[in-house]
User: What shape does this take?
Amino acid sequence: MITEKEILLRIQQNPDEHLASYDLEYYHAYWLGYTLALYENGITEINIIVSRDKFEEYLKDKYQLIEYPCNIRYESYLELITSSKKDFFDLYISEQLSAARDLKIKNKPERIFFGKSYTVEECFGAICKRPGMYFGNNFSSMHIGSFILGYKWASKDYSLKKSVLMKNYSNFQTWYDTKEPFSIGYPWYKTMLICTFYNYRDSFYCFLQDYTDFLEGKDSDFRLHESVNIALEEIMKNQ
Assistant: This one.
């Protein structure tokens, strides 16, 4: 069984193969996709480094952090004392390993639970409807990209059956390459962020629109032709 420690160290060594960007925020999206793939295939436990509650207590004690009445994640403090997203993620990994060592935790299994929506298609639909609930306020195409990469790697690690979403994944990249040929060889989730001038939310909604067109079998230039037709109709009306 692959452990969270192995996953984190593997990501640290080669982040481009796992995350849309080397950022803890995207790792959480990756982990969501990874654990969903396991749950969907009947694997209900995974060995984590340290539970969230114990890790939060560990950070609070180590850095002598003030206890707040509201639900604040103490790992956020690590971001305050680092100068980049990379340093933050590296420190997070280091502190996770330190917590497990100092607390003498070995191969702690954690139960995977997704409630009623346990298939990837159902969970994916819920994410598309309420992205902020799963990814936070700065949800973007990059989060979806990391989520899918997490699912993809779990499928590879455990030789799982492919879901409909995963079967569509590579085909969608090909479809999107014909829409934005300048980006061939570049992942769609990064291209969408560029095309929306790094507006995170817009990049997410750009994904929803394009992915819907793809699933409905529309040509990749469908929106362009539609815009041209609307413009021509307006010109004809004014003549």
